[in-house]
Write a structure and sequence with these properties.
By secondary structure, this protein is of the alpha+beta class. It is about 25% helix and about 25% strand. Strand 18 (about 570-575) and strand 19 form a beta hairpin. It is globular.
Length: about 850
């Protein structure tokens, strides 16, 4: 396909409103119309869109897309409809703009109620229309109808069922009657209009006579932002991950700041710590330094009441400085950063309330218990990282007293930690990762423990991609690039396999085994799960810095390095890194031995590492000339070269365009090592939907607890090997205190049968989950069964997670329990103290009516 044809297809695939226009564009394309005619028709279509929108008497909050053109390259792996659109001079002061998307797929249920054609949709009966727009967008639903007289409502969602979110949102149920403006209807769920939308529905309640639905569209808001960075490699999944991370950030660039959560669920404001990986991704993908600078200023007096978020703000400031060299901005905020770091130092030995370190169970499960040891250790290592990074930045702007102070503070705390090895021995994956990121390593205990932890494919995964970013940073620093790439594919690649076109707030790979593509995910510690959360985008920067290998050596890329890490699975990588001097470009192909580097004017590549793939190098050519050992004989701007087992390393390369060609002895053997299996202690589960409430004949021989009974009722028999059973975040519901319904559990000792349960506390924010901690007196094998009951037939579906109560390591893949209106048992065997986390997925809440203990 030629460039013009590709341009035309892309423009009309991604920015479509009217079905007749689609037909026109297809006709023009298929008939090989000239470029001039195509441009004229494209312009006329745009004018018609504008006129029709105005005629519909609807007021949009922003101007239509303008100030640029579709002149960028087509990126097959990008989910961004505007990936090819390039604004002339985007600025942080620009207003948001809007564009429209038409659905990629339309489904009517039942078929008999809807006739779908290129001219529109004829509605002749009640039912539901579902629209898949193909990608998550920041927008609102609109449609036109000239003859609609009946009752309709509309819904939107990030997943394939109409969305519901926690309390606090303007409309927590994302279904509402659309507002009529002339012949146009718009779904308005909040004053800002925008929501996270991939899917939409029109629900037809009544039909008095057939009517016609036209121009169903998603009106999307976007901040003018150009892709100045790029990334691609021999693994298309990694390429898609890079662009999906960038798109996730782009969707959340609001008028005045980096947003944090796209779906409106009551917490729309700038979360200071969330912005750290989002800004890192933006610098690598967009080079939009003015927007990052604006957000740093906007959040300079914030930490959201979270101690760690002050440290992330400092690290973001230094990240910005390292990418831009903007010493004036750094100097402006030295006092602010110093205040935050000094406060962290004063509280280091007697920590203040941390409030939040991450959604991961090992970090206290969000706001549930953030003071646990691993969270404290992780915070301390984060403080050391921030002190050392700040000391380095201060030294570069000649604030030597501050530099010396914080380097001294960090060194003292590191010495204390190394002196007391017992303190380090209980570090988990998060604290170990932050310790590595703080610069501890080499032959230290920290690195030895980290290598052991990084080798466990399951336990090196965090529940939150936010925290996962820091783990893969540490894995790279420890030289474990191959395992880090496996983790990138597990965490971020798994979200794409699920169907994601943006990255999620939380995610577990085992979701994919129990969910269909784009199904509603579990909701737990974070409340209702956001499927577009830019704190998950740090992987974009990580791929640019570690796989493509371009990093600043001094602030602003005056000096930089290019050291790619292809591992044993990748054969080529190429891309661009934006810098104040222009892009650094790199293209490495280990099969051909051809490598291309552009060093911008005004910079020096301190080191360029050309990967050898483990082969012996026979000859290196640079710009058509043999590279001799004495590089002074060349006029190429290179002043040093050496070779090791992995690279030919070239030093101090001056500005220019370089083409290297290496020849080798022997062929390159590209291996694809197995990533290994996820190591779960519990893999066998059984479900029982037949026994219903008659549990006594099959369950509870060792003991039982019937849940929801009043304390004075005889409703439990605790097994002899159980020490305590502790419930958290649950509430009790009694549907019927005396029932003959056999779905309710049999009452012990001929007592009254009750329909009761413990449930999650929906819709309260972050109460979409509850936990049951079962502590054994000593390790003892047993079989535990949970009885789920959807007594009021509320179409509940729920998920369970299992954790080792001592280590909080995940013990089993996440399991879903669906369709339990008649009661359903989920059983598993274990031999240790355990935490059971029960998560709401759909329905009013998650409901459990009994726990039963039996021999293994």
């Amino acid at each position: 396909m030629g460039f013009v044809e590709e341009y035309w297809q892309s423009a009309h695939r991604n920015i479509q409103i009217f079905l007749p226009m689609n037909i026109l564009s297809i006709y023009v394309f298929n008939n090989k119309t000239s470029l001039c005619v195509k441009v004229v028709i494209h312009t006329l279509c745009s004018i018609l869109i504008f006129i029709t929108t105005c005629a519909a008497q609807i007021q949009e909050p922003y101007s239509p897309l303008h100030g640029g053109s579709y002149r960028g390259p087509f990126i097959r792996e990008s989910p961004d409809p505007l990936v090819r659109y390039h604004w002339k001079r985007p600025k942080a002061s620009d207003s948001l703009e809007i564009y429209t998307l038409s659905p990629k797929k339309i489904t009517g249920t039942p078929d008999s109620s809807f006739h779908i054609s290129p001219e529109g949709i004829t509605v002749s009966g009640a039912g539901d229309l579902m629209f898949d727009f193909g990608a998550e967008s920041s927008g609102w639903l609109e449609f036109d109808a000239d003859d609609l007289e009946d009752s309709v409502t509309a819904s939107i969602s990030e997943y394939n069922e109409p969305a519901i979110v926690n309390a606090g949102a303007v409309h927590r149920i994302k279904t509402l009657a659309p507002i009529k403006y002339g012949h146009t209807y718009r779904l308005e769920l909040n004053k800002a209009l925008y929501e996270g939308v991939r899917f939409a529905w029109i629900h037809v309640k009544t039909v008095s006579r057939p009517w016609h639905l036209k121009n169903v569209r998603l009106v999307c808001q976007i901040r003018p932002t150009n892709y100045q960075g790029s990334f691609s490699c021999s693994d298309p999944k990694l390429t898609r991950i890079w662009y999906t991370g960038a798109y996730t950030v782009k969707l959340n660039l609001l008028q005045d700041y980096f947003g944090a959560i796209l779906m409106e669920r009551s917490d729309r404001h700038s979360w200071t710590g969330d912005a750290y990986p989002a800004q890192a991704a933006a610098l690598a993908a967009f080079g939009n330094v003015d927007m990052v600078r604006k957000n740093l200023a906007y959040t300079s007096n914030q930490n959201n009441g979270i101690a760690a978020y002050s440290m992330y703000w400092v690290l973001s400031l230094i990240d910005y400085y390292n990418y831009t060299g903007d010493s004036a901005f750094l100097r402006k905020y030295v006092g602010n950063a110093n205040m935050r770091l000094e406060k962290a130092f004063r509280g280091y030995d007697h920590l203040p309330p941390l409030h939040f370190m991450g959604w991961d169970e090992r970090l206290g499960a969000g706001f549930e218990n953030p003071q646990i040891q691993e969270a404290q250790d992780t915070y301390k290592m984060l403080c050391i990282q921030a002190w050392r990074a700040f000391a380095g930045a201060m030294a570069s702007i000649d604030k030597n007293e501050l530099a010396a102070r914080y380097e001294r503070i960090a060194a003292r705390k590191i010495h204390e930690m190394e002196y007391n090895e017992k303190e380090v021995m209980h570090f988990g994956i998060h604290a170990l990762s932050r310790a590595i990121n703080a610069g501890l390593g080499g032959d230290s205990l920290v690195e030895r423990l980290s290598r052991m932890a990084f080798n466990d494919r399951q336990q090196r995964l965090s529940y939150s991609p936010f925290n996962q970013f820091f783990i893969i940073q540490a894995m790279a620093k420890a030289g474990q690039y191959e395992d880090a790439l496996v983790t990138v594919r597990d965490c971020w690649g798994g979200q794409i396999d699920y169907g994601g076109t943006s990255f999620f707030e939380v995610y577990r790979p085992s979701w994919n085994a129990m969910l269909r593509p784009n199904d509603p995910p579990p909701n737990n510690q974070c409340g209702y799960t956001s499927l577009c959360h830019p704190w998950s985008a740090g992987v974009t920067q990580w791929l640019s810095e570690n796989v493509l290998g371009i990093k600043p050596v001094t602030p602003g890329f005056k000096y930089f390095s290019v050291i790619p890490h292809l591992g044993r699975t990748l054969t080529w990588v190429k891309g661009d890194m934006p810098t104040p001097y222009g892009p650094v470009t790199a293209d490495f192909n280990i099969l051909s031995g051809i490598y291309k580097i552009t060093v911008p004017s005004g910079t020096i590549a301190r080191e360029i590492a050309l990967p050898t793939g483990g082969r012996k190098v026979r000859k290196v050519m640079v710009n058509g000339k043999v590279l001799p050992e004495d590089v002074s004989q060349l006029s190429t701007g290179i002043d040093g070269v050496n070779t090791d087992n992995d690279y030919v390393r070239i030093r101090n390369v001056k500005p220019g365009i370089y083409s290297f060609r290496m020849t080798y002895t022997g062929a390159y053997r590209n291996t694809h090592p197995s990533p290994g299996k996820f190591d779960y202690q519990i893999t066998s589960f059984t479900r029982d939907s037949l026994t219903s409430g008659h549990w006594a004949s099959k369950y509870g021989k060792d003991g039982y607890m019937l849940l929801g009974y009043p304390p004075d009722n005889v409703s439990e028999k605790v097994p002899s090997y159980v020490d305590t059973i502790i419930f958290r975040k649950d509430r009790t519901v009694v549907w019927d205190s005396a029932t003959s319904g056999t779905r309710a559990p049999d009452a012990p000792f001929a007592g009254k049968r009750m329909a009761a349960a413990i449930t999650t506390q929906d819709p309260n924010a972050t109460y979409q989950t509850m936990t049951i901690d079962i502590r054994l007196k000593k390790d003892h094998p047993c079989r535990i069964s949970l009885y789920f009951l959807d007594w009021d037939k509320g179409d509940r579906s729920s998920a369970i997670e299992l954790f080792d109560l001592k280590t909080l390591a995940i013990m089993a893949p996440v399991k879903m329990v669906r369709d339990y209106k008649n009661g359903k048992y989920l059983s598993f065997s274990c031999n240790r103290s355990i935490r059971i986390r029960i998560d709401q997925v759909r329905g009013e809440n998650a409901a459990v009516s009994g726990i039963f203990f039996d021999g293994p």
